[in-house]
Design goal:
Layout (H helix, E strand, L loop, with lengths): L10 H25 L8 E10 L7 E10 L7 E4 L11 H9 L3 E5 L19 H13 L6 E3 L2 E2 L1 E6 L1 H12 L3 E7 L5 H5 L4 E2 L21 H13 L19 H13 L23 H13 L4 H9 L13 E6 L7 H12 L5 E6 L10 H16 L9 E9 L5 E8 L12 E6 L5 E5 L15 H6 L15 E5 L7 E5 L2 E8 L10 E10 L5 E2 L6 E5 L9 E6 L3 E5 L4 E7 L12 E7 L3 E6 L3 E2 L6 H28 L11 E10 L3 E11 L4 E5 L6 H8 L7 E6 L2 E2 L10 E4 L11 H12 L8 H8 L14 H13 L5 E5 L7 H16 L3 E6 L2 H7 L2 E6 L2 E7 H6 L3 E6 L2 H9 L5 E6 L2 E5 L5 H10 L4 E6 L3 H8 L3
Parallel strand pairs: 3-4, 3-7, 7-8, 8-10, 10-11, 30-35, 30-36, 33-34, 34-35
Antiparallel strand pairs: 1-2, 2-4, 5-6, 9-22, 12-13, 13-27, 14-26, 15-25, 16-24, 17-23, 18-22, 18-25, 19-20, 19-21, 19-24, 28-29, 28-31, 31-32, 36-37, 38-40, 38-41, 39-40
Helix pairs in contact: 1-13, 3-4, 8-9, 16-17
């Protein structure tokens, strides 16, 4: 029987809304509080064109295009920010804005020959670009927005990458007004950078980790020099790394690396960003001065540098003035850089430290081939400037930091970690770099130099090395050593990890093959060091090689011994890996020897000397933002725990008198904002063994009631008890309910049976308790249960959803429109299933608007209309209304006459073999007796089933 019950406890209605308000208020206050000050500080800009002399003692001027970035508060210390080669002031706009937000007044400018600035490129000549920068310091000293150390002396630091980094060094060497510098991925000696020779007849300096041989008569770095010259011709920013290098904690993948590569390959020549068109402006020399153009022409056509070319390169090199740099210097160099290797930064560090200056060295996982500094490293540079210009923050010190690139993760990005050593070894008489000897095999091998130096081996792709740096799929596939042109010397597998940190050295023995020609320019060789894993897969750290020129090689085969300095690198060589030294006669990135000949190569000493710099893994500064985030999460967890405690209290709310009653709903109301009330004061009770039909037109509130029953939404007022337990979201008693409400979601790639097993596994209950076979039998899917759900029809999905609701044979089964999508035979089967299910002592609640199905399936019915209860009781009572009966007889007309003659009976009419009459209180037995007495044979007699009529009457239709 469906009845009303005593009022339920209303504690939930009293506490849930206030608790929600408090929770929202606390979270909102915390978010607002912690986000205060997160908005970036405002930055304003001022454009200016500054005239500088075209050359020393010249009356003509060059116009330098500048932008001054002003912080929120001025005056402030200034930072001069030059750009990389081929760029302009637009290239450093983001970094300038970033520094201005840190509180610096930043002057970005386009160097002569770039952007809108006039003049011709002199490669950071001391007489041209460096003097231009001095004039910019003069101008800064006149600005009210810039702090000064005295008249004409601005408080200023200089930082920049590549071309801009060399400018920072040279400017510090000639102008004592510069207070501190932070050059990034730049050179010390441009002659050695573009024409390197890594071989020395005698021993090389090994006290510092990455010292280069810097021998004379180097090998022309043809590819990079060509990129440089092309950038000067057209204005394209071809030497810019183009992306930020990965930092510890970053993630990237091969697809992103490929995208970076595609962008680098397919992008059109970069415009200057400030309106000046790209393209040559001075014939074959482009924007270059005549002496620079002549220098490039000489080395590009001959592969050799004469005295005038060497002088041009010397005047463009910081090494000319590093003996005068005394300012605190932060040297940032990339470990992925085939243009300016670690040896260039090493030379700068040694020469500046020799002056007694404070020097800090940072190697990071980037460079011209690996990307520009990321946000963390840029923050270090800003911290360096803040301390040395204003004394703000803690002293950055002189610790040596380097980044270790480990194995590639599954995402394709490398695993990174920063290591910190007490200082850069070998500076100021400090302890020299520790070195470890690793023995190599030493079999003499003959290698061939092909005619024209072609085909050539491949070690790197200048300008596109960032693809290799970030792509696990390419990192081991780029380097190619042409057969017959390379000698290979290999170590035994390592027994423990060796962390190579800097430039290794090896003694090489080279001899001509008697009878073969000896090139007049000497033997040109390329030496590189691979890390080969247990499967033989080789990785060339930094994709870098050491070019070697061995002059005066005897034609009779007498060997010449040279000490070769290998490229500086950071590489953890794991246990079971081998080090593999390769000596090749060609390399695609350099000017190869063109004379066909052959050489005999061996090792003068089998020992490979590997630098090792011990350090500790860096711990980042306290991440304030992250800690605040953790604090917010903890506070929310505490609040959630309190709310959960209250919910458990509510869940533990049990009415012992109702523990045997499957379902009790009392005064249930659900209202929504805007005045909509979906359910209003609904009360009914369901007993064991009943199949209850929740009946009503669309919009009656049936589904809303079922969703509250399942704990999916909370009622506004009233409550629901299942077996005496109050229902709330996550209440344990919900495990005794099987439900199918508003459809079920299945994984389309799994079969029906697999979906059921996966669903049950999510409950955490033992598999035997699922009764999956019984549920599948009920579903009646046959062999289709083993097909993927994506092949199911709507009816098959509906049956599978009902089977899922029956898993575990729950005490209360709740179904919302279960016959949707079923054909008549399936509906008939479902009807029998539900009856049998209830006959076993369980309870079924079915929501539907199909009156015929409710009438044939359900024992009891609750009729809802506009959210309210309009009737409740057994189906027969609701259907018969005031006692209407039906009689199946052999003589319908005579039977109708008999019934009309009975007292109180009315509304008699014939329907085929049946006669219907409203008995109006007359017992049905009395009517039956009168018919029999009149000789009418009665086959059937009973209440007339007219649920449809009763329903329409109840809902006022």
């Amino acid at each position: 029987m469906v009845n009303s019950v005593a009022p339920l406890n209303r504690l939930r209605g009293r506490w849930s809304l206030p608790a929600l308000v408090v929770l929202v208020a606390l979270v909102g206050a915390i978010v607002v509080w912690t986000r205060q000050g997160d908005d970036p500080a405002p930055v304003s800009t001022r454009e200016a064109v500054i005239d500088v002399p075209e050359s020393p003692d010249s009356d003509r001027t060059v116009q330098i295009d500048t932008t001054l970035y002003l912080p929120e508060r001025t005056p402030a210390p200034a930072i001069l920010l030059p750009h990389g080669f081929g760029g302009s002031k637009a290239s450093v706009a983001d970094q300038a804005t970033e520094l201005a937000r840190r509180g610096f007044t930043v002057l970005a400018y386009s160097a002569r020959g770039f952007g809108r600035s006039t003049g011709q490129i002199a490669l950071n000549s001391l007489d041209h670009e460096v003097r231009d920068a001095q004039k910019l310091l003069d101008w800064l000293a006149t600005r009210a927005e810039v702090m000064t150390d005295g008249a004409g002396d601005p408080k200023v630091g200089v930082t920049g990458g590549s071309y801009g980094g060399a400018l920072a060094l040279s400017l510090a060497g000639v102008d004592p007004r510069v207070d501190t510098i932070a050059p990034v991925i730049t050179w010390n000696d441009l002659g050695q950078a573009l024409l390197p020779n890594a071989a020395g007849a005698d021993g090389v300096q090994t006290s510092t980790p990455a010292a280069g041989a810097f021998a004379d008569d180097g090998v022309f770095k043809r590819s990079w020099a060509g990129i440089f010259f092309s950038a000067g011709l057209s204005g394209a920013d071809g030497t810019n790394p183009g992306r930020e290098a990965s930092e510890p904690g970053d993630d990237d993948d091969d697809d992103q690396a490929a995208n970076n590569a595609a962008a680098a390959v397919t992008a059109p020549p970069q415009q200057q960003g400030d309106g000046r068109p790209a393209g040559p402006v001075n014939g074959a020399c482009g924007r270059f001065q005549a002496d620079v153009c002549a220098a490039y022409t000489e080395v590009a056509t001959t592969g050799k540098a004469g005295p005038q070319t060497l002088e041009v390169l010397r005047r463009a090199s910081p090494s000319a003035v590093t003996n005068k740099i005394t300012q605190p210097t932060l040297l940032v160099q990339g470990e992925q850089d085939t243009l300016f290797g670690l040896d260039q930064a090493d030379a700068n560090a040694r020469q500046i430290a020799a002056n007694g200056a404070k020097v800090k060295v940072v190697w990071y996982a980037g460079g011209h081939d690996g990307g520009s500094p990321g946000p963390e490293l840029r923050g270090q540079i800003a911290d360096w400037m803040a301390f040395h210009l204003e004394g703000e923050g803690s002293d950055p010190g002189t610790e040596f930091e380097y980044t270790v690139v480990g194995a590639f993760r599954s995402s394709g990005a490398p695993a990174l970690r920063n290591v910190v050593a007490p200082g850069y070894p070998g500076l100021d008489g400090s302890t020299a770099t520790e070195r470890q000897d690793i023995e190599l095999s030493n079999r003499e091998q003959t290698v061939v130099n092909p005619a024209g130096g072609n085909p050539a081996s491949v070690s790197s792709l200048p300008g596109l090395g960032s693809v290799v740096a970030s792509s696990s799929s390419l990192s081991s596939r780029l380097s190619i050593d042409m057969p017959g042109q390379a000698a290979v010397f290999q170590s035994e597998p390592q027994t423990a990890q060796t962390l190579l940190t800097g430039a290794s050295t090896v003694r090489l023995r080279v001899a001509a093959v008697p009878g073969q020609p000896v090139p007049a320019e000497g033997a040109v060789l390329f030496v590189k060091l691979y890390d080969a894993d247990a499967n033989g897969v080789r990785t060339l750290p930094g994709s870098a090689v050491s070019p070697v020129r061995v002059a005066n090689l005897p034609a009779d085969g007498t060997p010449v011994d040279v000490t070769v300095t290998l490229p500086g690198a950071v590489r953890p060589v794991e246990a079971d890996h081998r080090l593999q030294l390769v000596v090749s006669t060609t390399d695609m990135a350099y000017a190869n020897a063109t004379t066909p000949t052959a050489y005999r190569i061996s090792l003068a000493s089998p020992a490979l000397s590997v630098p090792v710099v011990a350090g500790v893994n860096a711990t980042s500064e306290v991440p304030t933002a992250a800690l605040w985030g953790i604090a917010i999460v903890l506070i929310i967890c505490v609040i959630a725990a309190v709310v959960a405690w209250f919910r458990r209290r509510l869940t533990a709310d049990v009415d012992p008198s109702l523990e045997s009653v499957p379902l009790v709903i009392e005064n249930l109301t659900k209202s929504y904002p805007g005045g909509l009330t979906a359910v209003k004061d609904l009360s009914f009770r369901v007993e064991h063994g009943q199949v209850l039909g929740l009946l009503g037109p669309n919009g009656a509130g049936k589904t809303t009631t079922l969703r509250m029953l399942m704990g999916l939404i909370q009622p506004t007022e009233g409550g629901i008890r299942v077996f005496g337990h109050r229902v709330s979201p996550g209440a344990p008693v919900l495990s005794r309910i099987g439900s199918f409400v508003e459809g079920s979601g299945f994984l389309p790639h799994l079969s029906g049976a697999e979906n059921l097993r996966l669903y049950w596994a999510a409950t955490g209950r033992p598999l035997p308790q699922a009764h999956i076979e019984e549920a599948l039998e009920i579903a009646g899917l046959g062999n289709a249960v083993h097909r993927r759900v994506r092949t199911y029809s709507q009816g098959m999905r509906q049956r599978l959803a009902i089977a899922q609701a029956m898993l575990g044979l729950p005490d209360l089964l709740v179904l919302d429109e279960p016959t949707n999508g079923l054909d008549p035979p399936q509906i008939h089967q479902m009807r029998e299933v539900l009856r049998r299910y209830a006959a076993a002592g369980r309870t079924v609640l079915v929501s539907s608007h199909l009156l015929a199905e409710v009438e044939q399936t359900c024992t009891h019915v609750v009729v809802m209309h506009k959210g309210s209860l309009v009737a409740a009781g057994p189906v027969d009572e609701i259907a018969t209304g005031g006692g209407e009966a039906s009689f199946k007889v052999d003589r319908p007309d005579e039977a109708a006459t008999v019934l009309r003659g009975l007292s109180g009976v009315h509304d008699v009419h014939v329907d085929g073999e049946q006669v219907h009459a409203s008995l109006n209180g007359t017992p049905r037995a009395s009517a039956l007796q009168a018919l029999v007495a009149a000789g009418v044979a009665v086959d059937q007699a009973g209440p007339r089933r007219r649920l449809e009529d009763a329903f329409l009457e109840l809902v006022g239709e």
